[in-house]
């Protein structure tokens, strides 16, 4: 009887999708023990926190092209030099500069009340005394695009959206069109002004700013984002059916061409022919908060990781840390860097510009000969709770122009569950950063740099995304 039971159980195991023996996964790639040591040691230091605290306290907000961003560059050069990096310098360039002015909004009728909003970057201005007009409310971009022009001309357009909370931040691309292109389309269709529901996932009474583009030939009109609660309030008022009249005061201005720049520092490698490992984030920020998560955290994480490698000894490849300028207003720093360094050989490029929450996934775009590099990354990052994604790496405004030249890419993806609660708001401050999550980021970047900067394989050009 026991034999029959054992035979039955064995047969069941061979046929059951739950119990059947599956093909064993491949053995993990072996990594140098020093990678593990560097990674684990990074979990116990607060270099990144110190950088964020210093920048946000001693400089604060850093709108591109302004005196504040210039002070940030001076601060950055001093900080990177003190940390021990080599070849620290600023590479300047010129850019058009937009500055915020007064910004108020109030419903005149049918239910008079004040609203909270922030002008979008590149917004046009109302008269100094304000603009009063009828509001036409659209639930989303699709409804706005489907409406006839006579429903829009001369009115203040409102576009709603309900950006979902996602781990990978994909809702930003899907719903951000209301900000990215909505104002230009409204201008082309004769609108007097446009307000949108903030592109965010919070319900705080903080508006989310961000840049918008008015192509050549399209007149910039007043454009602003309402805080999410105020946007929902406007929608409730509209649902009652009475016409809505609003007064807007937005007085931003274009101040002409000014200087911005990229701050560059290096960990020189032993083999110049092996290519440069480019890492960094952006130094500028919006002017509502102190830019702690966007992107003081990104420049701090990457610099702290590069310092860990530097302090451990000379890597094979040069690690170049770039704190890009003017990312928020159109990626001017990334474009300027690619122009200035197009003749140099970059092995890989990576950036951190998604806050300071934990890294949960990595993705690569490497040439076939460098596949072992990705395999070693998988081994090195797994203990930090980081999985290997199936997508193609190569994300980031600042490194985008360099990636287009054929540079290989490695992405370390942070969780975006909470990122868009504070993104581009007055709440972007150091209090929103979890020190433990920040250290996990530094450990992940340290492991990545330890693997990539010392990889014996050639990392040649790839087909751009």
UniProtKB/TrEMBL annotation:
It comes from the Bacteria. One of its GO terms (cellular component) is lysosome. It is found in: Endoplasmic reticulum; Golgi apparatus; Lysosome; Secreted. One of its GO terms (biological process) is proteolysis. Residues 1-20 form the signal peptide. Homodimer. The monomeric form is inactive while the homodimer is active. This is Carboxypeptidase Q.
